[in-house]
Amino acid sequence: MNKTTLVLVHAHTIFREGLRYHFNNTTAYKIVGEASNGQQAIRLVDYCNPDLIVMDVDLPGINGIEVARAVKQNHPNIGVVLLSDINDREGIVKSIRAGVAAYISRTIGWEEMLHVINQVRSGQYPINELVLNDAAVASAVLNAFRQLTMDTQAEQVYSPMSPREIEVLELVAAGHTNKEIALRLEISNQTVKNHISSILRKLAVNDRTQAVVYALQRGWIRVLPNDGSSESTQGA
User: 0.70 exceeded by the pTM?
Assistant: First the structure.
């Protein structure tokens, strides 16, 4: 079985040594390079083309979010895991827009970190769980994308979704459950589920939150005001 290759990026040698020790004791991962600043990281990724990058946000020169943005533009299949202050909501918003898969605390334990990295390895976006589980973070993310869509709403952008699917996804973005969406659009709950399944397939994403972020980034949907009737963004 081929190991998942990864690059470590951190300004402090002792931190990289600690991560290297843990990764070398796994059977699933192989470190193919290490960097101590953003410029080195970009060059190293271009050379090694790893499966994953585990990187601190605060780097000399180019910071981790900027590195992530550059990497995802040239290597969209590489998964990026950022280490930072988990309460930095602005950083989380910027990381989502840069295409980061996971945004975790520097104080996280090894077992928990490995769990998150395993999720990224399997194609998941744990950063979405962070948004869904913290109302303040979710609000910051939606406000940022609301401004983004206001800035670009005059542009006509091609969308692979049908007009009805756009309606459904806008209501998902506003925090409505499937049941609430069905009532608003006067369709069945099963039809809503079918629309969401179609949206996920067309956008090649794994879940509702990722679909919302993907569509907002491209100006395909607007963020609608929530009238307060929704109780959950994950309701059936």
Answer: no
Separation of alpha carbons 3 and 133, rounded Å? 32
**Structural domains of the chain, count:** 2
* Start-end of H helices in 82-207: 89-98, 110-121, 127-133, 135-152, 163-173, 178-185, 189-203
Per-residue tokens: 52:
């994953």
Cα dihedral value 83, 89, 92, 98, nearest 10: -130
Q: For residues 179-217, b (16+ Cβ closer than 10 Å) or e, as one string?
A: ebbbeeeebeeebbeebbebbbeebebeebbbbbbbbbe
pLDDT tens digits, one per residue of 117-140? 999 998 888 886 666 566 666 666
Residues 22 and 85 in one domain: yes
Domain extent for 208:
135-217
